[in-house]
Amino acid sequence: MRYELYYWTGAQGRGEFIRLALEDVAADYIDVARKRGDNAMMPFLRGKQAGALPFAPPFLKAGRMVIAQTATILAYLGPRLGLVPGGLSAEIYAQQLQATIADIVFEVHDTHHPISASLYYEQQRSAARKRSQAFREERIPKYLDYFESVLARGNGRQALSRHSYVDLSLFQLISGLDYAFPNTMRRMQRQIPRLRALAERIAERPNIAAYLASPRRIPFNEDGIFRRYPELDPVR
Amino acid sequence: MRYELYYWTGAQGRGEFIRLALEDVAADYIDVARKRGDNAMMPFLRGKQAGALPFAPPFLKAGRMVIAQTATILAYLGPRLGLVPGGLSAEIYAQQLQATIADIVFEVHDTHHPISASLYYEQQRSAARKRSQAFREERIPKYLDYFESVLARGNGRQALSRHSYVDLSLFQLISGLDYAFPNTMRRMQRQIPRLRALAERIAERPNIAAYLASPRRIPFNEDGIFRRYPELDPVR
């Protein structure tokens, strides 16, 4: 099946978690908006198609199904792309971990938009500074300690008993945090040896390495979820 | 099977979405912390049990499985409690809708805690006022218009082709918004006829009505997700 991915052009955003899964297994897919423009998403968002209604991008068209929400798309794709171990218990655990990744991604977004997504960053800079401080000091350690424990309880190298979409998403999370909070992540380096090793192994997977070196990988930038605003991550 | 639900005592919180599903079908379950205290959750959160590691409550013990994240717990329970229509496409749509409910619940929490969950409300009141204004004016209408459209595309009365855990969660969402943002919700009354009718029907389901009248239903309060702080919802 040829999958159709719909996501805003111009930033990695939440769409990137889906792209990494599709790229890792060299799935047949089209990144529709990057081919035809963001307007290609509008009929779906306005409810012009039958079936499921997306609230927002990313969404995936898989045959006649339309699936939105990053974690839900991956719950669907996982078994179909061979990116989750077999069995109910592994599938459910993968979904739980992906939902937790969605939570920290939400919090990352709110470091630069703590008041409203429809105001500019510059209009909420003071609250952004405060929220980012709490995020750096409390939330990054809490989430990364958690994911480090998840790896330790697995086989030490992967979240589940074998490679999965969760590992790909953890790679993206670490990459994004490295981009947005380089000083904090440098200080945390020794506390997350398993996550670091995982991120390196993922970056070296042939299909992922090829993808990251290709123009299909949009560079991190200040239109995405992970943004580098130096005042939100001071050197100390 | 006797399910064990683990959630903080003292507030409805995210645990309430699970309780409503279990209560609606009169499932056999124990609300563990309310029986044995919040400490009963600690061994799980500290990783003392085998298998899946929860990041935070709520989590559910189902036989040997431990499942965390509200939307994941409901994805698991849905088919087992008969609370989702059969078939992949309905299950996936239910998961997507529940993930979207999780998103607005996250945003509701951040109206009173826009800077940090570990500071008191009083320490972030000024940012809370600003975030709440954006939430009332932009986000409530956007989400509720969306769910109203979801109902319109279903059979007009339910999110899916028949009663599901998504309907129970929409009831909880509307109830919580009515509690926390009564003035805003009164002004929106006419824009959400289907959601209103759905919420009324759910409240009248015999098992739900009995639950809501029982001491098992913790009243809304200012320790939960939905909090009534009058300055966050002015009369205008």
UniProtKB/TrEMBL annotation, chains A, B:
Domain named GST C-terminal: residues: 94-232
CDD domains: GST_C_Sigma_like
InterPro entries tied to this protein: Glutathione-S-Trfase_C-like (IPR010987), Glutathione-S-Trfase_C_sf (IPR036282), GST_C (IPR004046), GST_superfamily (IPR050213), Thioredoxin-like_sf (IPR036249)
Origin superkingdom: Bacteria
Protein name: Glutathione S-transferase
Organism field: Dyella flava
